[in-house]
């Protein structure tokens, strides 16, 4: 029986993606340099609380308004995260209430993937 899901996203520069997410507060928990160049990574794993994320070399850059996958991160500290991230990332949507009982904000990472941070609204 599965116990968790950890997305692996293919990106053009694994090290740059890992560094960007570490600057947001993720912890780097593992990486693999390529055989030909120890400065170039072909894989990295990160964690933010119970949330895991992996990057793998081979993705393409994109100018699309939205990529193939979005990340959605549940939090119990939306306002704290907003204060920390609002000047570090491209804002897609600032904090707002949704019709489905959550507060959310959306940022875009360096590879143009959307990351939504969401918190339930007390009822």
From TrEMBL:
At the top level, the lineage of the source is Bacteria
For this protein, the record's Pfam families field holds: Glyoxalase
* Coiled-coil annotated spans: none
Entry-linked Gene3D superfamilies: 2,3-Dihydroxybiphenyl 1,2-Dioxygenase, domain 1 (3.10.180.10)
Q: Which InterPro entries would you find in this protein's record?
A: Glyas_Bleomycin-R_OHBP_Dase, Glyas_Fos-R_dOase_dom
- Residue ranges constituting the Glyoxalase/fosfomycin resistance/dioxygenase domain according to the UniProt record: 8-116
- Name this protein carries in UniProt: Glyoxalase/fosfomycin resistance/dioxygenase domain-containing protein
């Amino acid at each position: 029986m599965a116990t968790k899901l950890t997305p692996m996203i293919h990106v053009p520069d694994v090290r740059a993606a890992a560094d960007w997410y570490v600057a947001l507060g993720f912890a780097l928990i593992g990486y693999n340099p390529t055989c030909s160049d120890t400065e170039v990574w072909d894989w990295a794993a990160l964690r933010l609380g119970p949330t895991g994320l992996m990057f793998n070399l081979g993705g393409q850059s994109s100018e699309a308004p939205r990529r193939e996958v979005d990340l959605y991160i549940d939090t119990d500290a939306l306002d704290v995260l907003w204060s920390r991230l609002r000047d570090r990332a491209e804002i897609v949507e600032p904090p707002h209430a949704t019709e489905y009982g959550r507060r959310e904000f959306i940022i875009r990472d360096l590879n143009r993937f959307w990351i939504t941070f969401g918190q339930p609204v007390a009822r």
